[in-house]
Amino acid sequence: MKLSQLNPGEQGTIVSFTDLEMSVKLMEMGCLPGEVVEVERFAPLGDPIAIRVAGYQLCLRKSEASVIIIQ
Amino acid sequence: MADIKVALVGNPNTGKSTLFNLLTGLNQKIGNFPGITVDKKVGFCKLSATQNAEIIDLPGTYSLYPKSKDESIVFQVLADKNNSSHPDVVVLVADATNLRRNLLLCSQVADLGLPMLLVLNMTDMARKEGIHVNVNKLSERLGIQVVAMSARKNDGLDTLKKAISHTTAISTQVSGIDVTIFAPEAIAEVKAKIKTENDYYALQVLHQHEHLTFFTAKEQQEIEAIEKAHHFESSKIQGAETIARYRYLSTVLTDLIFDTGAEKKFKVTDKLDSILTNRFWGFFIFILILFFVFNAIFSWSSYPMELIENGFVWLTEFGHAHLPAGVLTNLLLDGVVAGLGGIIIFIPQIAILFALISILEDTGYMARVTFMMDKIMRKFGLSGKSVVPMIGGIACAVPSIMSARNIENWKDRIITIMVTPLVSCSARLPVYTLLISLVVPNKMILGFLSLQGLTLMAMYVISIVAAILVALVMKFIIKAKEKSYFIMELPVYRMPRWSNVIYTMYEKSKTFVLEAGKVIIAISIVLWVLATYGPSKRFDAIEKKYTAIEANSTDSVQLASLERDKAAEKLENSYAGILGQTIEPAIKPLGFDWKIGIALITSFAAREAFVGTMSTIYSVDNGDEQTATIRNKMRDAKNPETGLPVFTFATSLSLMLFYAFAMQCMSTVAVVYRETKSWKWPVIQLVYMTAMAYVASLIAYQFLK
């Protein structure tokens, strides 16, 4: 399942990434495999989304969230 | 003189800039908006009675692999021993509420082998959230001094100063990971090539040598060859390094962090977010805030602007009364002082706008605006982060274009820079006000909406729509260098720090005066010379003609009017007048005559020159620039051939559209050149904007005349 498929309030554990280049940026920001992420809210127009990860709030576009595979 | 150089390095939003202020006493701009500290900031600090330190505040970054233009400075400074800012000691500032992510950068910097220490900042907030960090154990495990403090509360500063002066010249940190396993042969070869002992430095050089300026072309080629020979896969190795570092940090932090009150965290921020980024209320509140900002820029500034204007009028009059009459006095007062007045008058608007923007950034709201606006902006080839420069464009494009530096994506940034000058800046305002008052009746619609006010508002809307449409066109023309992305921290909401707000006002106003000032003063002088002198043959003829007439006249009123006619005729025959007449055929289809032509030429230096030029051309006596007088003069102006008024509705609207779109600002051209490091972009901007202005004016005039 992809992170972009979650609704606000739902959470999952990061398993892997489908895009190498993007994964580097995401991991630097604390989105590591094994980390629990929770979708906090969507922007008013449905994209980007705000997630809670590694103890802080991060926002990213849905296209970027779709490279994160979760469980 | 400083005994040691200290660099502050850390993630965005860690209070690094607040700490810098505290250390140096030299207040600096900071914001919650990630990466707001763009320029290199330097200050001095007395560590002890005998030791002085130079403190360098480096841009906030999450890792040594840069994402944006200002982040790339960090590695450049830390890596290059010959860099003038290369530090003796690195102070790594970390947010105690989010230690693990902050320590990623710490472990990267540690591996570069510079003497360093760690500051655990925001410990007061961590305590509130129930987080306790065992500082002694952390220090032991990292092998460096760790100072717990709270820069906002001015807590722990003395300990930090002592720690800096106690830092040994030889680095003590424990190396967390063995970086050679990622590319053993390539690292070994680079180490030999660039003569370094440091494995991690060699690895970083392999990753980002293309962006490092301190290698020669030959060295670059050789490093490139090493990369190719060993199939160096940059992204893959970076990913592996990040994972390895986080794994190491997990062991470092084991049994060090005690977290008791997990529930209470982010309660305020969550609540605020649910209102401020609400599906319905989010945009509504944003638009309300925009209206407030817009209103503040114009209504709060009217009084100080009037004061400044009157001050300059007084200064000019005083100068003319007390300085010996002559060419130099005229140049000084009508050229330099008038030019200076034209700049300083905009300071209130710029100061108010940037104070408000800095409050919005400091509280964390601006990050939410970019979050909300990203989807819309992306459709037009921009990013959510383009919102800040574009709002800033309402006051002045010069500082706004500089603030586009924190847009990571090259294409998004270029498009933002290219369209920001289209947003109606405050320099266009006097032009609009003058022309609107001339042709739009002062009537109310529905009893409360002023027709003139609506027209002014329409000009702003037109400018924003134009900016967005141009961005859309550029989205398809400009080729992307890399994939656009939007991964951004949403900081917790905080109270603004008022000293920072004041500093921002000061800083931005200063930038504007220095950047725009140089050009405007130079142009004012050139314009003054061009408008005062002309081919001597023609001038002699005019002198002779009026001397003859004046000799026959005794009436003082008539004499004064003759003097005015003489000045007007001189202007017509001056170099500026000749220039205006030369371009008249080109601007006639737009409804402009040669007098407006002069104003257009002078406005290419700076738009605000319009009103001044108009008042010179329409020979308002005593240099008294009261709008009413110029307005009446302009209203009475007749076309000598047809006898019809010059400033019809069609001409005025055409002129306003021309000013809305044309690139009439030297300072912007200069700043775009500086920011893009090439003449290509400012030239494209100048051409497309001027072409757009010409076409829009042509259509408007031909339809309305």
Give a written overview of the molecule:
In chain A, β2 and β3 form a beta hairpin. Helix content of chain A is 18%, strand content 38%. Chain A is of the alpha+beta class. In chain A, strands 4-3-2-1-5 form a 5-stranded antiparallel beta sheet. Chain A is globular, with a radius of gyration of 11 Å. Chain A has a single domain (3-70), classed as SH3 type barrels, CATH 2.30.30.90. Chain B is of the alpha/beta class and 705 residues long. Among the domains of chain B are: 4-166, Rossmann fold, CATH 3.40.50; 179-264, no CATH class. Chain B is built from 30 helices and 11 strands. In chain B, the strands form 3 sheets. In chain B, strands 2-3-1-4-5-7 form a 6-stranded mixed beta sheet, sandwiched between helices. In chain B, strands 6-8 form a two-stranded antiparallel sheet. In chain B, α22 packs antiparallel against α23 (556-573). The radius of gyration of chain B is 30 Å and the shape is elongated. At the A-B interface, α1 and β4 of A face α3, α10, α11, α15 and β11 of B. β4 of chain A pairs antiparallel with β11 (488-489) of chain B, so a sheet runs across the interface. Chain A: This is Ferrous iron transport protein A. Chain A: It holds the Pfam family FeoA.
Task: Give the secondary structure arrangement, pairings included.
The complex is a heterodimer of chains A (71) and B (705).
Chain A: E1 11-17, H1 20-28, E2 36-42, E3 49-53, E4 56-60, H2 62-65, E5 68-70
Antiparallel strand pairs in A: 1-2, 1-5, 2-3, 3-4
Chain B: E1 4-10, H1 16-24, E2 41-46, E3 52-57, H2 72-79, E4 89-95, H3 99-111, E5 116-121, H4 123-128, E6 131-133, H5 135-142, E7 146-148, H6 157-166, H7 184-194, H8 199-208, H9 217-229, H10 234-253, E8 257-259, H11 267-276, H12 281-322, H13 327-344, H14 347-363, H15 365-379, H16 387-392, H17 397-402, H18 410-419, H19 429-439, E9 444-445, E10 449-450, H20 451-477, E11 488-489, H21 498-532, H22 536-551, H23 556-573, H24 575-587, H25 594-603, H26 609-617, H27 627-636, H28 649-661, H29 666-676, H30 680-704
Parallel strand pairs in B: 1-3, 1-4, 4-5, 5-7
Antiparallel strand pairs in B: 2-3, 6-8, 9-10
Helix pairs in contact in B: 3-10, 7-8, 7-9, 12-13, 12-14, 13-21, 14-21, 18-20, 19-20, 19-27, 19-28, 20-28, 21-29, 22-23, 24-25, 25-26, 28-30, 29-30
Keywords (chain A): Iron
InterPro entries (chain A): Fe-transptr_FeoA-like, FeoA, FeoA_core_dom, Transcriptional_repressor_C
GO molecular function (chain A): transition metal ion binding
